[in-house]
Amino acid sequence: PIPHKGLWRPGRSPGRAAAAAAPPPGGASPGARSPFDRRLKRKQKNWAALRPRPAECEYLRDEVGGGVADRVLDIPRTFPLALDLGSGRGHIARHLSREVIEKLVRVDIAENVFKGTVESEIPTVSVVADEEFLPFKEDTFDLVVSSLSLHWVNDLPKAFREIHQVLKPDGVFIGAMFGGDTLYELRCSLQLAELEREGGFSPHVSPFVAVSDLGHLLSRAGFNTLTVDTDEIQVNYPGLFEVMEDLQGMGESNCSWNRKPLLHRDTMLAAAAIYQEMYGNSDGSVPATFQIFYMIGWKFHESQAKPAQRGSATVSLGDLAKIDKLLHQK
């Protein structure tokens, strides 16, 4: 069942929003403004969701989903209607209860992720749609959350504007995405191996946003009272091939238009040896680093606290510097 008959934006049904995930034949060509093949990403996520045991590769999604949920729990209110953008199998909702979110709309580009949803007590509705083309009306949701999905969006500023638009005034967006240092060990090992064996290299790890850009992008989209913080998660694997296998199982394989479809066997073996030599642990395993950016932004409302007017202070900074001296005298 679809909640609220007035939920949808005119002229943009869920089906149309899902179809927008990939450019039509003869449409926009790959380039700086469209670095990712969204049709391929949809296939990758659909394939990963239908694996016999998809949960085996979702440890990272569960960990980061819990981090987003913790930030939701820090806000002392109940959200009547929330949107989980790029929800996957429900890695945020599993950490929350009906006392926090009364009803949840889950959106993902890949329809297969909804077939094996992680159980949650929150009533949910699932919608196949693209993050850049949300089919919802303006001022619809009290909360929007997103975990490890927005780093595959071609137009991140547009996606942030869409999120801001569907939020109600005084609504909050809480998200997490991969940062620029993610998988630097894998990236460096593959590049060195290709240079050695093939005389050049192609990108095998997708480009990520820098933390210095996030606050600016959120502010331009209309968000205020911004918070951006970073975290690093390091996972140890037996070797390079296991790293790449788990990335494929997460649906996180590279989908850049300029990716190299196949790597020569000799190049892969050289990359595995370089990975072990440069980054290997004493027990023979190799680390893979995932940098996570967490972000919080609010949509403006008159009731929100405002900064005091310039010149309205009643205590000078010079007086504050004397506090320690006065305390010692007492």
UniProtKB/TrEMBL annotation:
The keyword Oxidoreductase applies. GO terms for molecular function: oxidoreductase activity; S-adenosylmethionine-dependent methyltransferase activity. This is Arginine-hydroxylase NDUFAF5, mitochondrial. InterPro entries: Malonyl-ACP_OMT, Methyltransf_11, SAM-dependent_MTases_sf. It is found in: Mitochondrion. GO terms for biological process: methylation; mitochondrial respiratory chain complex I assembly. The keyword Cell wall biogenesis/degradation does not apply. PANTHER family: ARGININE-HYDROXYLASE NDUFAF5, MITOCHONDRIAL. Residues 83-174 form the Methyltransferase type domain. It comes from Phasianus colchicus. GO terms for cellular component: mitochondrion. Its main location: mitochondrion. Residues 1-37 are annotated as: Disordered. Residues 9-21 have a biased composition (Low complexity). Keywords: Methyltransferase, Mitochondrion, Oxidoreductase, Transferase, Transit peptide. Belongs to the methyltransferase superfamily.
